[in-house]
Design a protein that fits this description.
374 residues; mainly alpha; Growth Hormone, Chain: A; 15 helices; 81% helix
Length: 374
């Protein structure tokens, strides 16, 4: 197997494992502020990660396109290790929130570069399917191990994946030595003019009628899933043990692993993948309100299908591929950052169950969006 592909696959597994190791223990990590702020404290820790990814995704994506993808793959793993060490070292909610922000910034460095590399492989549909499979495998493993180890120490799951990320970082060092050097190119025009051009091109692509539905669907799919994952630890506090909670959320990612792997090998158009995936996900979101394990499995099955279709749609856009993949990742993390924060504000007034129903309805209604680039 190509060594670049091995690096991408190992990196995404450990990075996603560490990111989700915090999920089953969010209420405990937020304990110092949980009495005063309720679920909002948990949503702060959840969303800090995605805010970090959101604000860094496009800048890092642009830089990766200019100066080499491998450097930003390495940077992503390095920042992941640093964030894990910071979480292990502190119990202060603001320090942990900062660590989660840094962890999100790691994804901001990693994913645009990773998807750009994947889109250049010969069998890119298969590669994106395999990458998505391992992404979900990391998420599932992280949440399951963290839930299981919480009985010994709430941070033991985080420790496991911090160590794993450190090992990948060390193994990636020889690869970095052969990466394209990070050299600031001398532009023939002023830096301000260069930035202005990039901003205009980004805004033009973001609001292009041919592509806008891909951005909206990416925002809704990941944001709606994020609402359930962020608040289920609080919602199920008196119903599920940490091990059961970890297993339920892991079911989401395991089913997404299976469907993403299978659908990438079927002769199905990405438009069909997206519509079917969004519809199935909405059904799963409804079921999960009362039946967590079965609901999360159905939600994951739909998400896995759509998570293959959406990046394929972005990679087929008639625009700069690096920019398209950067915008796709930005929209996914925007959904994960913004929708849980909004939901957290309304939980105090309407309760989590009603929020979950509204969330599922929004997810289902997205299927009605008209076909554009898809």
């Amino acid at each position: 197997m190509d060594t670049d592909k091995i690096l991408l696959y190992c990196s995404v597994f450990v990075m996603m494992g560490l990111s989700d190791a915090a999920i089953p223990v969010l209420p405990e990590l937020a304990a110092s502020h949980h009495v005063s702020y309720g679920p909002i404290a948990s949503s702060l820790l959840f969303s800090s990660y995605f805010i970090g990814a959101l604000v860094t995704m496009l800048p890092f994506g642009i830089l990766a396109g200019r100066h080499g993808n491998l450097i930003f793959i390495f940077l992503g793993v390095f920042l992941t290790v640093m964030s894990g060490l910071l979480i292990m070292a502190s119990n202060d909610i603001w320090i942990i929130s900062l660590a989660r922000f840094i962890e999100g910034s790691a994804c901001g460095a990693f994913f645009p570069a990773a998807f750009s590399m994947l889109s250049e492989f010969k069998n890119r549909n298969h590669c994106i399917g395999e990458f998505t499979f391992l992404l979900n495998a990391g998420l599932a493993t992280g949440v399951a191990i963290s839930g299981f180890l919480a009985r010994t120490n709430i941070k033991n799951g985080i420790l496991v994946f911090t160590i794993a990320s450190g090992i990948v970082l060390i193994l990636a060092l020889p690869k970095l030595m052969y990466a394209k050097p990070f050299i600031i190119k001398q532009a023939h025009k002023n830096i301000s003019d260069d930035v202005s051009i990039e901003v205009k091109k980004t805004i033009s692509t973001l609001f292009d009628n041919r592509f806008i539905n891909v951005w909206i669907l990416s925002f809704i799919l990941f944001g709606s899933t994020g609402v359930l994952v962020a608040f289920y630890p609080d919602y199920s506090a008196d119903i599920l043990t940490k091990t059961e909670l970890g297993a339920a959320i892991a079911g989401l990612y395991v089913s997404a692993m299976v469907t993403s792997f299978l659908v990438s090998r079927l002769l199905i158009g990405y438009y069909t993948m997206i519509r079917a995936g969004m519809g199935i996900s909405s059904i799963g979101a409804l079921i999960a309100i009362q039946f967590p394990i079965s609901g999360f499995i159905v939600l994951g099955a739909g998400s896995g299908i759509a998570m293959v279709g959406l990046p394929i749609a972005a990679s087929n856009m008639d625009t700069d591929r690096g920019l398209a993949m950067g915008l796709f990742n930005t929209c996914t993390y925007a959904g994960l950052a913004i929708m849980p924060l909004i939901a957290g504000i309304f939980t105090e007034h309407f309760g989590l169950e009603l929020i979950f129903y509204v969330n599922a309805i929004i997810l289902g209604a997205s299927v009605l969006l008209r076909k554009s680039v898809m």
